[in-house]
Task: structure prediction
Amino acid sequence: LSPPLGVAALVAARQKRRLRGGGGRVFMAEPTAEELWFPSTYVDARGEKRGYCNWVVPGKVMLGRYPGGTPVGTKTGSPSPDDTAAHMKTLMAAGVNSFLCLQAEVPPQDASPQWPEGGVVPLADPAMRDKYPGGFVRYLDA
Result:
């Protein structure tokens, strides 16, 4: 995997994309695929390489899947604990320090009492639990 871009490389890439418009306005060209790519992957149950995430705004805002095991992963193959740990180290090395999860079932990673023994939270909907029996696996040790 390639190392994450440093601050100087990100600033240089951003400067190359600045376009001057009328009235002194500055517009930004769309980022390239290379600027949006983030070097962190795992291999799913089918043997296919899967990416965890990508930049939405290079070096600033990232979007991605839940980094640990998921209920759907019981069928498609979730990342291993080692893959998850390596991904988290890569994220933090890139300066990512805030995480937002929109899954209602998932308690904050630092809320130890809310995580059951074993660190796995099932889906809230019983019908969905039957279809996807796994759970969300805690990815950070508090």
